[in-house]
Amino acid sequence: MPAETRTAVDKALDLVEAVARAPQPPRLTDLAEEVGLHRATAYRVLVELVRRGWVLRAGDRYLPGTAVLRLSSSAARNSLGALARPVLDALSERTGMMVNLQVPEVDRSRVIDVVRPERLAMISRLLGEALPVHRFAGPLALVAALEPADRAPYVKTAEADGYPLEGPDGLLADIERTERTGFAVEYGRNEQPVASLGRAVLIRPGAPVCALTVVGLGAEFDETRLALLRESLREATDELGRILAGSGSPAPGSTQISIPSTATATATAIDAAGPGPLSTSTDSAPGAASSLATTESSTAAADVPPSTEGPA
Fold first, then answer.
1. What is the Cα–Cα distance from 211 to 109, expressed in whole angstroms?
2. pTM surpassing 0.85?
């Protein structure tokens, strides 16, 4: 689009988009050239974008601002929840279990939607809460689906909490096992007598978008039912992956796998837990932290704002 036909809104959006898609934090000259604006014009618009929080200035470079991050996070979660809800409803109905949707954050996952059947009302939904990898199946599934180099912040959180990393029962073994099988399982790590089973949704390797977790009483996660739950969860995560990739749509009436009822086991587990409500495992994850290289004074001089403009 020719520069003279662009409105002020066009120029502002062009600069915000250029900052967001840059492979590394760009300088004023880079941005002006990228969007086809005079440096003075680009600088003037950037001053306002910095003031409003859409762009962050660090030295002579620019990064996405907090307004962009808040908007993109909220929009992604809201749209993801809307797309995923029919899948959650169908999975909960066919298994009789509580189902939650989690997204990765910097060092844990966050629960953004929950479907809980009435019979499991004693289990906490944990909607909106951030969950650590060593206590819940959801973040464990997400971390195991990450590239090994990206797992460190999650592992550090567990280590800081005193959770063992090494050994057959350590977190690293849990991650390896989950990566190998594709499923994360936990029994009572957050609350007895609750268990959960999680699986990540992947559009491309090493970058999980979210995870679905099936949550219920531990007595219902015996070997036979666990196999059926895995198959139902596999179908649900695969379906959600197709929806997010744009190659499918929610189909609540699709393949049904019946999980046997365990009323007796449920009653026994509740009795064993004693009086009072249970709080447990609804599992949720990653924001990415930007790194900014040190700017040398020789290169900074080339991007000093035009003298007619005020400081950014």
1. 9
2. no
